[in-house]
Amino acid sequence: MSARRLAGIIPAVNHVHIERLAAVVCVGALSAVATGVRADAPRDQYVLRAVVDASAHSVKGTADITWTNRSRVAVNALWFHLYLNAFEEGSQFMRESGGQLRGVHAAGTGSIHLDQLSIDGGPDLLAGATDATPRHDAREGAARADEPDAGVGARASAGTTAGTGAGAGAGAAGSASPTAGSAAHPTTDVGVPHDRTQLRVPLARPLRPGGTVRIHVAFTSYLPPVFARTGYVDDFNMVAQWYPKLARLDPDGTWATFPYYALGEFYADFADYDLTVQVPLGYDVVSGGVPVPDGSDAQSGRFRFRAERVHDLPFVAARHLEHLGAQVDGVWVDVVYPPGYRLAAARHMDVVRFGLPRLSRQLTRYPYPRLTVVVPPRGAGGAAGMEYPTLFVGEGPWFPLPGLVYGGTEDTAAHELAHQWFQGLLASNEVMYPFLDEGLATWTGMDLMRALHEARRAGDAPDLPADDPLAPLSRALLAEPPLPADPFELLRVFNFEGTSPAPAPGLPAYDYDAADYGRAVYGRTALLLETIRRTWGDAKLRRTLHDYATRERFGHPRPSDLYDAFDRTYGSGFSDAVLRPVIEGAAVGGLKLDSVDETRHGAGWRVTVRASRTGALSLPTQVTVTHPHGPPSELAWPQSARTFEHTFVGERATHVAVDAQREDLLDPSRLDNAWSATPSDVPLFKRLWFLGEALLFTVGP
């Protein structure tokens, strides 16, 4: 273990004392969270109280919410997400997912039951409430604050199957039946059959812009056996999306409310949270918030946390948690792990120690005093690889694929760390625009791992844990890889595999099936960004993403905001020529070397090279011609030209390649990109090695 590592990481045995001191400092630092003109001012307030029943895996809770109408229209009703009801039989989530997520299958159900709901100290609105209002099959549109009979705003497309997540029966402005959603009592019957993940609460009188209401909710949450983000295994409880959560009201008066889809995630306002959790003795609790000494007493099982300007606050309750802590770039990082998982925790810490300062510089500064990283136990794979504001869940210590870039624990940690910006700090709509979240995080995480590996080779990054049994092999492969693999090239290969092309990355989450969601939203977006980086240079792309992240910090950006950032850097019209065709139209940058014609010309040869674009996307391209003697000729193929033709007289060509530098990662096939006068002399073992790495990239954790 290096001296730098010893100096930066606090041993677990000193954790309790350091935590108490750090908590005092961090609570004071909450007021120092970087200010911004947005962050949904004035912010909502959530005061949450939770009592965990460890044997029943349930949470008895209350939520006292202060909410302000920040839109430009009066509000006739409030909309809540009841996410845990997604784990009821027959829900939208269960129908779409088939009761599984990422190969982990449901072994039980979960739900949230409301016990009491009142507004501004009034009577219990649930008394006499019923869900028997007539159902309707309304689509296309959004619930508006000034349309009390409107349904939900998920904008599901008509005519598609529930199996893809589309056509969920989301309600729409102007298309609801006269009685739907207009009952005097709160109702979860808002037009999505058999789904109770949305709650509409009518108001006694309209709440005008700038008006504030105070809501009290008492509820009981029942966690499912973990298979999709939240739930329990043994005594480990990942308590996420566990409370009634207000939907976001956009400035134009549109409620961004939707059922909990199998692929879409979340979208909410920024708020200030005060959370108190009571657990049985012997349990520990960690959360994304800052521990508050006043109100916490571990000896009695009470833990209190505060978090400012976040859009969610989950927590973990479990026995025997261990901690690995470090101060990183002014942020207290707490990696929490089960006994025996110390090496996995150290790998997570290494990624955060390297990545947190880097992403703060490259994007926009991480504004919170704390970051919590949870290493889940074996059996909790359904909770792994999930991001929340100021907290993310990594992976357990399964085989980390040593030396294979972008495989295993560290890759997941890098991806989830990137999510602290996309979508944690920017808070885009993950249901309507998932590429702004998963796509940008995929490129950012892969780029971070590329930099980490380069820094390790140069000795400028934290070394692998000294007692990690796989460390020697990892170091050897990092230092001298038998065949350095380009992870983005591997991603390109798997993105374009199969007979049917992936749809555009810019669709709503509910319009994909699981396979296309990964290929389009994660893969195609990352390939587009890396193609831009390789084609126009590294500095321009980083300047663009910094501009975008800085301007849209706390801002709930939409695709147009990302397009504007690219146009500011690359020039007007760049997004129309490059981004929109790919993101909205699924365009590809196919290239083909059509022919290399050689004829005798005096004492030499006349050589004509022809190539064409086979996709709708045009990019500046290089054609490389290699001769028996002298350096290769680099010939420019302008972005505006659909075809390429060049004739030269002199020596014969020995090799011709279109895009030899592999800048265009949106080319579906490279098999037609090159010509050689002699058969390829690439050794067979190198081809097999590449295929082996590709296989591990596909099936690895």
Quick structural overview:
This protein has 701 residues and is an alpha+beta fold.
Mind explaining what this structure looks like?
The chain is of the alpha+beta class and 701 residues long. The chain folds into three domains: 40-319, tricorn interacting facor f3 domain (Immunoglobulin-like); 481-583, no CATH class; 591-699, Immunoglobulin-like (Sandwich). It is built from 14 helices and 32 strands. The strands form eight sheets. A seven-stranded mixed sheet has the order 7-10-3-2-16-19-18. A six-stranded mixed sheet has the order 1-21-22-23-25-24, sandwiched between helices. Strands 11-12-20-17 form a four-stranded antiparallel sheet, with no helix packed on it. β24 (386-388) and β25 form a beta hairpin. α5 packs across α7 and α7 (438-458) crosses α10 (514-536). The longest helix is centred in the C-terminal third of the chain and has 23 residues, at 514-536. The radius of gyration is 27 Å and the shape is globular.
Overall outline: globular
Mean pLDDT over all positions? 83
If you compute it from the alpha carbons, what radius of gyration comes out, rounded to the nearest whole angstrom?
A: 27 Å
Give the tally of β-strands: 32
Supply the helix-strand structural class. alpha+beta
Counting structural domains, the number is 3
Assign the CATH architecture of the largest domain.
Sandwich
Low-confidence stretches: 1-37, 132-142, 147-183, 399-406, 696-701
Distance between the termini: 26 Å
CATH fold naming of the largest domain:
Immunoglobulin-like
- Beta strand %: 25-35%
Strand order of the largest sheet: 7-10-3-2-16-19-18
Tally the helices: what do you get? 14
Fourth CATH level, the homologous superfamily of the largest domain: tricorn interacting facor f3 domain
CATH class of the largest domain: Mainly Beta
